[in-house]
Each structure stands twice: as C-alpha cells, then as structure tokens.
Amino acid sequence: MKPPNHDAVRTQLSRRHFLAAVSLPLLAPACLWQPYDAGSFSIPERSSVGLFPAGDYATDFADLVFRGFRELGANITGRRVFLKPNMVEYEPGTAINTHPHLVAGTAIACRRAGASEVVIGEGPGHRRDIEYLLSATGLADQLREQRIRFVDLNHDDVQMVRLRSWFTGLRELALPVELLQSDFIISMPKLKTHHWAGMTCSMKNLFGTVPGAVYGWPKNVLHLHGIPNSIVDLVSTIRPHFTIVDAVTAMEGDGPIMGRPRALGFVAMGSDLVAVDATCARVIGLDPAKIDYLRSASRFLGVTDDIRIDQRGESPGRYATQFDIVDALKHLRLS
Amino acid sequence: MQDRPSGVSGDSVSSSTSDLPRFRADLSAILQRARNADGGWPYHPGKRSRIEPTCWALLALSQTNPQPPNLDVLGRWPRHDNWLIDLAGAPANHAFNAIAALTLLQSGSTGTLAEAIVRVLIASKGVPLAPDPAIRQDGSLQAWSWVDGTFSWVEPTAWCVLLLKQRLARGPYPDALKRVRVGEQVLNDRACRGGGWNYGNANVYGKDLLPYVPTTALALLALNDRRNEPVVVRGLEQLERDVLSERSAVALSLALICLRVYGRPTSVPEQQLTQLILDRHLSPGYGDDLLGLSMALYALSDGPLGAFTLGAV
B15 exposed, middle or buried (CB, 10 Å; 0-12, 13-18, 19+)? Predict the structure, then answer.
C-alpha cells in the first residue's frame, strides 16, 4: 500500500474537503486497496449485542454491568482491566461525558467479576486540564470513594506502536504505556451524534487514547489523516475487548459537545465494538453502511449486518428513534 | 530518559496556607526529591523524564532556590533535527521546545541550544486551512502547530510568541518579529467572542465555544506587551471572572502567573491554589501531578516572573 502524499496537506485545504479526500480510499473496492493484513483479523460469524434498560443515573450500574458480563460471556477473572470513558468537556446540563455513576458501577462490577486490578484512563482532546474535568464531572468523587486509580492518558509514558491497519497511511503511533500494559480494555463511550464523523460511540472513543503531550490538543494528526481512517486504525491496533455504552441520556444534533441531551434509557454492551456501534447507529436512525468508519471496519474488524447480530436484553426496536443531526450529515440517515 | 520511582503524596508539608515561605520550601523539596536520575522530571513520579515538566520544574526551582538548578539536562536531551524530542520516532512538540528555549533564555543562557530551537521554531509554520463555513476563523494565517504538518493552535502559538519576544528582547533575530506578528494575528483571530481563548476554535457551526482558563492565561502572557488591545482587555476580564470557580492546579497556577504579570489582584487565586495543593495534591492517593506542583511553585514564588514579563517589541 502506498501511503498518502502528506505534502498535499501543506497546500490550502478546507477541513471538510480534506476529510473527504482522505476518506476516498475507504470507497475504493476492497480488491484494489486493502490497508490491513487480512490474515491477522477474523470477523465472527455472529456477534452478540446487549441492550439493558437504565431509566436514569440512579440505576444500580454495578448490578447491570455484572449481569451484562455474564450474559455476554465476558471473562475478566484475574485480568488487569482498563476502563476508557469519554470525557471531553464540561458544561452543566449537557450530556457530553460518560456518566461517572456508570463508570464507577462498571469498576465495581469488574472487581466483582474477579478483575485483578481496575484502572480508569482518559486523554481529553480539547481540554488538557484533566484535574478540572475530573472535578467538574464528578468522576473525581467516584474515584476517591471507590479507590480507583486514574491515568491521564495525555501525559502517561508513551511507546511507539506499529499500527495493524493503515487507512491513515501512518505506520505507527505513540500510545500510552498504561493502556498497552492492560489485558482487558473496555471502551466506555457516551452515545452522541458527531458533526464530523456522524456518530461517536465505542470506536471513536479511542481518540482519547492518543497522547496529547505528543500530538497536541486537539489531536490534529488524526483529523488530518481522516477521522474515519484514524478511528479504524486505532480500533484495529488497540483491539478493545469489550464496550459499555452510556445511552441512558445520549446527545443529538451538533455533537459531540454542542448537541442536546436526549434520553434513550439503556446501556449497550458487547465484545464486538463494530456490532455494538452499528446497533447504536440504527437505534438513533443512522445507517451503519453510510458511516465511513463502520463500513471500513465491517470488512475486517466486526459485524454490522443486523441479521448476524444476536440481540440480548431488550430489542433495539424498543429504543429506535431518529436523532437530529447537522444538515451536512443528514444523508447518513436510514432510508 | 531514565526512570526513578518516587512519590510525593504524603510528604511532610506545612499545614497552613498562611506560611507561604514554608509552603514554598516544602514544595521545592518535594520537587527536588522527585527528580529522575537523568536530571529531568516526569509528569508523574516513576515515569520517564519529559520536556515540559522538566522545564517547569527548572523554572520553579530557579525562582525559589538560592542555588539555581543545573540546566545541563536540557543540553543532554535527545534531539532530532535540532528539535528536543521526548520519544524516538514521535514528532517534535513545538510548544514544549519553546518552553525549553524559554527556560534556557531565562537562565541567562545564550548558548547554541536555545538559538538552535529558536531557529527551527521560526522556520516552523502551521498548515493553512482554506475558508470553511463550519469554522469561523482565518485559516490562511500560519502561526504554530503542536507538531509538523498540522494546523495552528492557541497553546503552541502562545508559547512561541512568548519565546520569540523574549529572544528579541536580547537582540535582533532574522524573521523573528515577522513570525511574532503572525502569531499575534492568530491569537487575535481565535479569541472567543466574550473574551479569552480555548484550544483554538472560537466558533464552530455558528456556535460560540467557551474559553478555558489555562489557554486564556497563556495567550494573555504572550500578549502582555499589548495590554491596551481590546482582545487583551476582554481576555483579562474573562480570566478574572473564570478563575474564581477554577479547580485545578495547572489552571490556577497559569492564571496566577498571568494576573501577577499584569499587576492585577491575586490574593483569591493564590489562596485557592495553596488550599488546592494542600487538600488534594499532597493528600495520599492523589496522582502526584508534578507538572501542577511545578507550575504552582513558580506561580507562588515571590521573585519577578522574568520568563513571562515582556517589554515592548
């Protein structure tokens, strides 16, 4: 595979045109361009996705997540578990971040399920001031109460890691050592529309693993190599083992920061991040086949086809709705 | 750079915020104990030395210790194409290189390393961005990006403007003034509508974004030789409002440095900062944030804040 010519980046480009340009390889037929080693990946015949009702944030999330682990066969006994919530920005009354009660409940569930250690980590892409975010969002209180260690992924030690796919054209990225040393990674996103990528969920959440103290705030390298491309390369390389999606109150409209809260009332879980994200996309009225990174990921990382997804817990139909989305991305809606 | 496991939580410190000299001495001792064997500092004890916390620790200790700290560690720092780098294979970080050069200049060094960093920073430009209706800003302005090949952002631009102004105060330098002016234009262009700065987008999809305290303080420090400019006046007003509800060591420290440089009242943020350090940063179980402690020590020092105070350029 020939990497893109990055000198082209130095010419005048609009962000939208650039993102479209670097996404073009995603549209190329798979037979012509396969930016991954097919032998290193195998898509399951079927994947399971669980949707578990949670009407509000007073839910007993430790119990809910523990049940989810059992129903979906997550084995974390003796493992060092890394929880990666989504913490971007704080504004009172909004639904930007994964709720701290869900994060803390998951940590308790992991301990109950036999995890040898539970660590929570995040590397926000706009605010580098993690102390502010932990304090403002209330996660600091949960960390203290539950005695959970937190790792600021923006400022952790880093290691250059060879990427396992090359949609971006990059061959390697610096990634945090604490993340790499974990043996069970759980992505814990907030379900939101996203004004560049369409939707942010389990997969896009991994942007927060890229260290700001190397690449800056925002992590502009990822934007310039294409947001969909970067999402796919990060997921293929980090390979999270599980995801727990905060869709109790999600965000619609101009997400991931300026959108409106929208109550959905469930937590989605599963070990196939692609299948979980595809299910969440359908629930909010988006077509997974039209979302670039899900389409690419369906080639080698996971299942998007709903007839190959076994639903556990509640049916997606119970929650199906149509989220508002910015005009430029209305074409992503289910037809 | 080498590791040296160490911790700061639970270290013995003055229990009162009223005894500031004692508090500073305690923080200084903690920082010196947290220094890695290679002479640098990590973000968190037990981790590898990194450019940014090392420079802030050196700046802080040079403010508070009678014996200035040895800066040789920066001379020995791994380099690539005249850039200091934290990790082989990772891109050079422009903001942190500017902090390193500023630290060297502050120590009185006119050595080749500071000059080499100034040279590569002057040659460095953010990638231009053509007009985009979704992002209300002048993307044609090329100030400083975090790393090569990306757009210009507030924090690296502020650090580079500050560095070049400090360098120009020591004598002329080819193209430095021209780059300073572009940097000032970008800071002016990226200011939030109500005043202050965030990471560098003031308006996206027609919505005004909110400023942050740390980036507002940094941008104001880069512009403290232009105190009558409307963008500076608005930013300072915003900072003085926002700092009252601030709750992090990094934000309070940068705000305190800024307010001191601008000659504004500082008793409230000073009290907030010392209390925060005592209550949280030095309590067992906290994550031992050496960058925050270094910034706090610098901000609470009683000497002139030479690295940040600018004359007219």
Answer: exposed
CA A4 vs. chain centroid, Å, equals 25
Query: Among candidates A249, A214, A57, which has minimal Cα distance to B95?
Result: A214
Name A187's bridge partners: A84, A243
Is A113 part of the contact surface with chain B (CB cutoff 8 Å)?
no
Whole-angstrom distance, CA of residue A188 vs CA of residue A308: 23
For A153-198, write each residue's pLDDT tens digit. 999 999 999 999 999 999 999 999 999 999 999 999 999 999 999 9
SS3 B209: coil
For tokens 């077509």, name the residue.
Answer: A287
If we measure between CA atoms, which residue out of A88, A113, A42 comes closest to residue A274?
A42
B59 closest CA partner among B309, B306, B310: B306
pTM (2 decimals)? 0.92
What are the φ/ψ torsions at residue A275 (nearest 5 degrees)?
-65, -40
Residues 78..97 of A with a Cβ closer than 8 Å to B: which? Answer: 91
Contacts of A92 (CB under 8 A, 6+ apart): none
Domain boundaries, chain A: 51-332
Stretch (H or E) spanning A280? helix A273-283
| B151 interface with A at CB cutoff 8 Å | yes
Q: How many CB pairs under 8 A join A and B?
A: 143
Q: Which pair of tokens denotes residue B21?
A: 């000299």
CB atoms B52 and A213 under 8 Å = yes
Query: Within a 10 A sphere around the Cβ of B132, how many other Cβ atoms?
Result: 16
CATH number of A51-332: 3.40.50
Task: Please check whether residue A171 touches B, CB under 8 A.
Answer: no
B40-78: pLDDT as tens digits: 999 999 999 999 999 999 999 999 888 888 899 999 999
Of B47, B129, B153, the CB nearest to A14: B129
Task: Give the DSSP H or E segment for B96.
Answer: helix B94-106
At B129, list the tokens. 């961005």
ipTM: 0.93
